């Protein structure tokens, strides 16, 4: 069968009509904004993708890539608690994941976070299965504001999780046997005005005791043992810092990108100026 032909009327800057021919089954499309490699899976190449839809029931797509046949297979699991803004696969147990999602109740919307389990009895060869994710526990953020993201320990050596809200870093101790996650520690962002964190990354070096965060145009390093700030790159970018990440092979090296359309490389031992700046694109 030929690929289906799709026409879209884009008048008035909106999609007014989609006509599909030669499509033998009903279908719909959901937007997605978050993907995570299933790093605890050591035998298969797998990814998890979370959907973001206000009108439809949201899903987590469990994608299996066969590198020998170059074929993608998927299973769909229902995520009934709202649109997924952030998803992270566990580094400890391949069947665990966390989501940060928009929970609406009584006309009030809040960003929550939970740990979920993928049902163990799913059939990886059957992409028509639509089981629901099994709730393991909610991550308490009642005193800290809306959740932005959750990170599992980089190496999977411990069950500590790090979470980010608009203005706080939180750590939880997760006990898988009792399905309970208890708040271990937290620290707040203290700065002029009402700054908000945009992202967090766990440093895979230094025994995984450090994280880095971005807020506005600044980058900050934190020691998770003391929850104290250990370095601060003020005005790292001319505009909002969108994302940061560490070099997994070299200590101290950090990369950042921002709304100023620049990518910058840093040595966290000397943050007075970047090691290198790339300005070869016109968008972040």
Keywords:
disordered N terminus; 284 residues; five-stranded mixed beta sheet; mainly beta
Give a written overview of the molecule:
The chain has 284 residues and is mostly beta strands. It starts with 5 loop residues before the first strand and ends in a 6-residue tail after the last strand. The chain contains no helices and 23 strands. Strands 3-4-5-6-10 form a five-stranded mixed beta sheet, with no helix packed on it. It has a four-stranded antiparallel beta sheet with strand order 7-8-9-11, with no helix packed on it. A four-stranded antiparallel beta sheet has the order 12-13-14-15, with no helix packed on it.
| Radius of gyration, taken over Cα atoms and rounded to an integer in Å | 21 Å
Oligomeric composition of the shown chains: single chain
Strand content: over 45%
Tally of strands: 23
Spatial order of strands in the largest sheet: 3-4-5-6-10
Order of helices and strands: EEEEEEEEEEEEEEEEEEEEEEE
Q: Given the structure, what is the number of helices?
A: 0
Overall structural class, as computed from helix and strand content, comes to mainly beta
Low-confidence stretches: 1-27
| Proportion in helices | under 10%
Short summary:
The protein contains no helices and 23 strands. The protein has 284 residues and is mainly beta. Strand 20 and strand 21 form a beta hairpin.
Q: Secondary-structure blueprint of this entry?
A:
Blueprint: E1 6-8, E2 18-20, E3 32-37, E4 45-51, E5 58-66, E6 71-79, E7 83-89, E8 96-105, E9 108-117, E10 130-132, E11 134-138, E12 147-152, E13 160-165, E14 168-175, E15 180-188, E16 197-202, E17 210-215, E18 218-223, E19 228-233, E20 241-246, E21 253-258, E22 263-267, E23 276-278
Parallel strand pairs: 6-10
Antiparallel strand pairs: 1-2, 3-4, 4-5, 5-6, 7-8, 8-9, 9-11, 12-13, 13-14, 14-15, 16-17, 17-18, 18-19, 20-21, 21-22, 22-23
């Amino acid at each position: 069968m030929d690929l289906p032909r799709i026409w879209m009327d884009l008048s008035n800057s909106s999609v007014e009509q989609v006509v599909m021919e030669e499509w033998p089954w009903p279908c719909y499309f959901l937007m997605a904004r978050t993907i995570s490699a299933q790093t605890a899976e050591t035998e298969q190449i797998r990814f998890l993708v979370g959907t973001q839809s206000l009108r439809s029931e949201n899903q987590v797509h469990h994608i299996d890539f066969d590198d020998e046949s170059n074929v993608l297979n998927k299973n769909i699991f229902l995520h009934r608690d709202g649109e997924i803004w952030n998803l992270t696969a566990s580094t400890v147990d391949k069947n665990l994941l966390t989501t940060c999602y928009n929970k609406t109740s009584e006309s009030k919307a809040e960003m929550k976070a939970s740990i979920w389990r993928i049902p163990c009895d799913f059939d990886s060869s059957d992409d028509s299965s639509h089981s629901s994710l099994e709730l393991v526990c909610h991550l308490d953020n009642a005193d800290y504001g809306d959740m932005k993201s959750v990170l599992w320990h980089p190496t999977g050596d411990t069950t500590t999780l790090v979470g980010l809200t608009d203005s706080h870093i939180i750590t939880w101790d997760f006990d898988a046997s009792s399905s309970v996650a208890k708040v271990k520690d937290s620290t707040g962002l203290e700065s002029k005005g009402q700054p908000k964190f945009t992202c967090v990354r766990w440093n895979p070096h230094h025994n995984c005791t450090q994280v880095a965060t971005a807020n506005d145009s600044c980058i900050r390093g934190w020691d998770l043992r003391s929850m104290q700030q250990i370095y601060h790159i003020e005005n790292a970018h001319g505009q909002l810092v969108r994302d940061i990440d560490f070099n997994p092979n070299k200590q101290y090296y950090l990369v950042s990108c921002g709304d100023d359309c620049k990518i910058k490389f840093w040595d966290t031992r000397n943050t007075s100026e970047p090691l290198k700046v790339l300005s070869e694109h016109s968008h972040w």
